[in-house]
Amino acid sequence: MEINAGDTAWVLMAAALVLFMTPGLALFYGGMVRAKNVLGMLMQNFFAMGLIGVLWAVAGFSLAFGDGGGFVGNVDFAFMRNIHVLDADGGLVNKLPGLEFLTVPPVAFFAFQMMFAIITPALITGATADRLKFSGYAVFIALWSLLVYSPVAHWVFSPTGWLFKRGALDFAGGTAIHINAGIAALVVVALIGARRGHPHHPMLPHSLPLTLIGTGILWFGWFGFNAGSALAANGQAAAALVNTGLAASAAMLGWLAVERLAGGHATTLGAASGAVAGLVAITPCAGFVGGMSPIIIGALAGVICFFAIGIKKALKLDDSLDVIAVHLVGGIVGSLLLGFFADKSATGFGADGVFFGGGTTLLVNQTIAVVATLVFSAVVSFVIAKGVDLTIGLRVDEESEDVGLDVSQHAETAYTT
Question: What is each CA distance from 133 to 52, 140, 398, in whole angstroms?
């Protein structure tokens, strides 16, 4: 295979940027929990970097990108076999099915996708904040990564996946990452119940500066997340980077506008939440839209996700840090809006949506992808969570919750007085 040095350098840098997002997510969530739980939140996110990285090498990558049919991969790449292969002349051989076009070493592609696999289960932690047992969390995300994330990633990212073959588009993970993690979060929260004292006692963020720092890191890393998904240093990567920034900016403004109208104030937490909602919504679209479309998508996402906070109230769910409103709803909004705003002339890739002469074909495929991800992830996530809960338990006991996760789960405190 022909290796392009510039493409390789960009994908390696993008992989590092995506990994940096997980500590950013830890700070984003960590600032929003109470002080007695901040280390617990940080640990859950950092632990994913260790556990999921190893599982990705052992089996996750092979299940996602092996050629096992339309629904899941196989074991061809398990334990990192057949990823870094050299021919008799010392040249690289690409054995990744349907990805023969790559101009980067297959191991670079492995690394980039590994960072996606790491951050996806970490997203769930925002919904279950303040009450998840660390051992239960560890077992849950291990099983979830292999049984839910890898199959759905195969559907939409692998050229052999059934949704990919249908023509559904997901540039960087609207379905596989955000809808997938968002619906899993909803299921787990419904299973474990609300925090003690919720909703009668206020549970305010202990450090919004940490949350804003985390937001900045997420926004920075998201350029690698989306632009890196072009898998080359080309025009599509540049367009994806610009679209990512514009959508986040517009979403922040949209969220703050309705927040000001509804409550009389534009808050720093609203600014952070709005920006992340825009980043989520543009993720499936980034390499397939252009012009003013990312601004429209972002603005709609900011407004819709703000009002989607009411979902948890309507369902009487204690989604601690609004994962359902931002990631689940934001992922759905972006994936469906792509069916309207996709413009093949913008980057030369993808298909045309409703507003650009493509009819409803893409919108139908996007809807199928959204529904399939919701149903599969919800069912399997419930089975995994219920199994863990019945065996080692998912939730800490009342005394541990009152003391806080920092002390009860990790024998540490974040702050001393």
Answer: 18, 10, 11
